Prior knowledge:
CATH topology of the largest domain: Aspartate Aminotransferase, domain 2
Cofactor: pyridoxal 5'-phosphate
Subunit structure: Homodimer.
Order of helices and strands: HHEHHEHEHEHEHEEHEHHHEEHEEEHH
Distance between the termini: 49 Å
CATH superfamily of the largest domain: Type I PLP-dependent aspartate aminotransferase-like (Major domain)
Number of strands: 13
Shape: globular
Family: Belongs to the class-I pyridoxal-phosphate-dependent aminotransferase family.
EC number: 2.6.1.1
Number of helices: 15
Helix content: 40-55%
Organism: Phreatobacter stygius
Largest sheet: 7 strands, mixed
Structural class: alpha/beta
Strand content: 5-15%
Radius of gyration: 21 Å
CATH class of the largest domain: Alpha Beta
Amino acid sequence: MNPIFADIPTTVFEVMSQLARETGAINLGQGFPDDPGPADVRQKAAEAVVSGWNQYPPMMGLPELRQAVSTHYARFQGLKLDPDQEVMITSGATEAIAGALFALIEPGDEVVLFQPMYDAYLPLVRRAGGVPRFVTLKPPHWRFDEADLAAVFSARTKVVLFNNPLNPSASVFPREDLELLGRFCERFGATVVSDEVWEHVIFDGARHVSVLAVDSLRERAVKIGSAGKIFSLTGWKVGFVAAAPALLKVLAKAHQFLTFTTPPNLQAAVAYGLAKDDDYFIGMRADLERARDLFAAGLAGAGFEVLPSAATYFINIDLAPAGITDDVAFCRKLVTEHGVAAIPVSAFYAQTPVTSVVRFCFAKKNETLNGALERLAQVFSRAA
């Protein structure tokens, strides 16, 4: 067995979800919404599977979806993308990330990673033969500076794996951080693989800035998006890849030997969805903001130190002010004694973790969130 995968322990997500099932706890650990997704988009997928083409679609994706991705990003992010040479469709963003790493990394190449990080990143980097170099981000702002980058970039740096907005911190890197990263990538000849799946799930009137909107990164960055996050259809696994032609040509070769294609009915439905009126995207964010605000207020009222949530489905608490520095033990106690499942953020670090931050998913119905808040209100009062 390959030790990279054979030796990976059961993830904390499965551990907490299993405990939630066993105890009947409210599960705010896994990151998927209660909302079933827009009915008209789902209807388009149903119609396409009954009356549309169900054999192999083009390897690069349906032309109508590649055009829709190009038009969508021009509309919302001001990007100019050639749908024929700069856009590819994959079976989810994780496949896109894996394919990009396999295409760009040779054994021994160094890869810069920002932790906390999505749990798939490190195994994929190692399987591609990459040598990880970590930038450690800390609450409450989760930012990096020039000294952080200088400590990890070298002549062997080949790829930077970036996530903006950042899961699990629920933070957004501003343009100035992207420009700083761009200067380092230019200096060292590195390529950025940018996981931007949360680009539409961003709050408080902010607008997403893609790596492709930064001049120094336009020709040396891979932008990855996800229909699952845009439409709250996490099971659909339809990803978007955008990059300059020279990069995309190589990325396509990796995609060809991973999944090759993505279900055509889902592609057709996503193409329809990306052209929806602004009201959908505004309303989706507004609904999530209301859920975030409800849950944040309840957490604060229960005595927790609530960290800012600028994007994603998640909100974090910092237990350090309460003198708690073992987030794993706290989460186990929370699910077994108080009936709420959450995720310890230390699980998203490979080394020197922050051990006082806990993540909750708030993309749930109000009754679910209120039920969880009733239980969470007992945590400190019972301890007292």
